[in-house]
Amino acid sequence: MEVIQGIQGLKVPSSEAGIDKVMWRHYPDDFRPEYSAASTWDQLRTHAATKEWSKVIWFPQTVPQFAFISWLAIKDRLTTGSRMRAWGDNQSCLFCREPDETRDHLFFACPYSFMVWIEVVGDMLRTEPDPDWDDTLQRLITHPYPRYDYILLRLCFKATIYYLWGERNERRHNNLYRTHSQLARTIERVIRSIIVSLRYYENKKLRGLIQRWFSSRQNH
């Protein structure tokens, strides 16, 4: 009955009103002639409070594949040995042979991964790196770093997670190994390439980024 009453309350179409137009709802009470997939998705999805770690993962200079793997790591959804155990597969750490390969062990309690992290992060943490996952993440969330340092720290954090996970899988599936220094050098080259791809020299807000990157390497 409510539907019928609602229909009956509508105005009867009239040629005097002009040609009908298709309008798309972008937001409540905001209808526009153009379609927006983003607005449609935003209205269909279930909204939740923004996670405090989201700024570590999603920011303008982010790299999508780094962000995705890091997001899985934060959610503890990577197929580590501890998760594979539920399927009957006992997988120890392929870096140090620790029997219990957990997310927290890989990032960065494992001696191998911690050495990679130390080399990549340089002096940007402004304190000694901590191998504890929760402490490292919480520091990135709460500490008021300078702008350039914070951009680079988040790139370092996500790139290190991404390449450590890739190295772990190379060892597991292809029996290929790199030393911690070799892997750290690879990550550093990638970050340098990312900075160049940002065309930092054309953006006043990013012009000091490459200088800060090189200065963080001086003692490493």
Task: Write up what this structure looks like.
The protein is mainly alpha-helical and 220 residues long. The protein folds into 2 domains: 43 residues, no CATH class; 162 residues, no CATH class. The chain has a two-stranded antiparallel ribbon with strand order 1-2. A hairpin with a 2-residue loop joins strand 1 and strand 2. The mean pLDDT is 90. InterPro entries: RVT-Znf. Keywords: Nucleotidyltransferase, RNA-directed DNA polymerase, Transferase. One of its GO terms (molecular function) is RNA-directed DNA polymerase activity.
Count of helix runs:
11
The helix-strand sequence is HEEHHHHHHHHHH
The N- and C-terminal alpha carbons lie at a distance of: 75 Å
**Count of structural domains:** 2
Portion of residues in beta strands equals under 5%
Give the strand order of the largest sheet, numbering strands 1, 2, ... along the chain: 1-2
Structural class computed from helices and strand pairing: mainly alpha
Radius of gyration equals 25 Å
Report helical residue fraction: 40-55%
Unreliable parts: none
Mean pLDDT: 90
The gross shape turns out to be elongated
Strand tally: 2
Q: Biggest sheet: strands, sense, closure?
A: 2 strands, antiparallel
